[in-house]
Amino acid sequence: MSKHLLEILYLLLLSSCAFFIERIDTPLVQNSDAIRRPPETPGFCDLNEKADFQLTGTNDNSQVAYTEISKALGQRLDFLDHFALWNLLQLSIRPDQSSATSRLQVLLSKDGTSHYFDFFSETTEDQYPYLYGIEWILRKFGKKTSLEQYAELLARHIAGRLKVGKDFELFLTQNFAAIKGDPALTALYLRGADVLKEGETSPILDYKAVIGHYRKAQRDQKIIVNTTLTPFVMDRGFGGSCNYDFNLYDNSIFLIDKIIPVANLYGLATPTGSFLASSSQRLEQITGLKGLPLFKGLSKVRSSAVCMIENNGNKIWAISNQSRDPGQHLFHLVRYGLPGRKSVADVDKLIRHSRHLFLSDPLRLIIESARSSEEQIENLLKLNLPIYNAEKLGNIWAYTQFPEGQRFIIDRRNPGALLCR
Fold first, then answer.
1. What is the C-alpha to C-alpha distance for residues 172 and 168, in angstroms, rounded to an integer?
2. Per-residue pLDDT reduced to its tens digit, 313-355
3. Burial class of residue 82, CB neighbours in 10 A (0-12, 13-18, 19+)
4. What is the pLDDT of residue 39?
């Protein structure tokens, strides 16, 4: 596609964006039933609410349980303690994508300074980048508490209190046959003739045991640690940095995958620090990890797209997943003015708006027609380009820090939960 045509499309879609293809086999036509206005539910905690402590993830039960833990421990927990515990708890919440063998990407702010970390391995045997990454970050910031001590805290306070969330139920349902064919997994994840459902009690994880396996393999860990992002500058002077090179998209080079990779997104914020993370792994086969209620996978998987945008004292972080080209989606958001947004409501509005995605072989455009205006659709139908409808595209979560306060933003297209207190 020529750069000129791309620019025309951007003008036509000036208030839209792009990603995750749930249905792309529906050609777009005028007066289609797909053209409707979705409800606009804000994806962030009300600015009038107290928000000294914030949690985000896909499982609201886990957020309540963790809040009760933090209350029970009182003032004993600092930001890095919360960082370690909320990450370790994800092993129970999303054992498919937040396993010991998963890739871990973290955007983190402590004492006003922002950092990016990415931990993965290209080796296949007994690699635990998820646990390695948690421990590496703790040591970087001078925290002496061991993973074993955090495991003991969780064992004492969380056992038997976690419930299955919607995302994990979907994973179990999609992999029912493989789980049923494995006696160890059957015992953990089947109740009668069906998999565990949302709201049912999650299997209890022995956190000390999984950390013990990590310790035994610690000498053999070949973990790649990446802390660099690629900068970009907009015409109006606003800039930021991302883990995808936007120069490629500027030249109509799209990084399109054959599959839609998934990830677990979650975050935590306190007055002294905040983080937004993505964990993911490739499951070549559905198998447990060392007999534990965790799934064994490979961390050499396509990363979620991340951007850190900090201008004039404001912070906007964004993580994109559930797309065949997650970087393309953040590129579109930046093109539509994300770096210049001045409030959490502005960022939320941009995330909720209509999205589009360019795909190749054959060249075509996928759009969320339900979120697009009739004028946009009418103009697009004049282009000499196949255009298809998607019910929803992608998943983008954000963290913002403006003078009004700090807030997480979840994408209402997909399951997500927020807690502010």
1. 6
2. 899 999 999 999 999 999 989 988 999 999 999 999 999 988 8
3. buried
4. 54
Indicate whether 302 pLDDT > 50: yes
Q: In the numeric block, which tokens belong to residue 399?
A: 């963290």
Nearest to 222 by CA among 277, 290, 299: 299
Angle, to 10 degrees, between the axis of helix 79-93 and the axis of helix 207-216? 100
Q: Are strands 387-389 and 364-367 parallel, antiparallel or unpaired?
A: parallel
* 147-157 and 207-216 helices, crossing angle to 10°: 160
Q: What is the pTM of this model?
A: 0.90
Backbone angles phi, psi at 78, to 5 degrees: -100, -175
With cut-offs at 50, 70 and 90, classify the pLDDT of residue 371: confident
Angle among Cα 270, 98, 147 to the nearest 5 degrees reads 65
Tokens in use for 175? 């992999």
Report how far apart the first and last C-alpha atoms of the chain are (Å, whole number). Answer: 49
- The structure tokens 């998820």 sit at 130
Q: How far is 79 from 100, CA to CA, in rounded Å?
A: 22
68-412-280-24 Cα dihedral, nearest 10 degrees: 160
How large is the average pLDDT for residues 361-374? 84
Position of tokens 């399951």? 415
pLDDT in tens, 18-60: 333 333 334 444 444 544 555 567 799 999 988 999 999 999 9
Token pair for residue 144? 């002496």
Selected residue with higher pLDDT from 135 and 357: 135
321 residue type, one letter? N
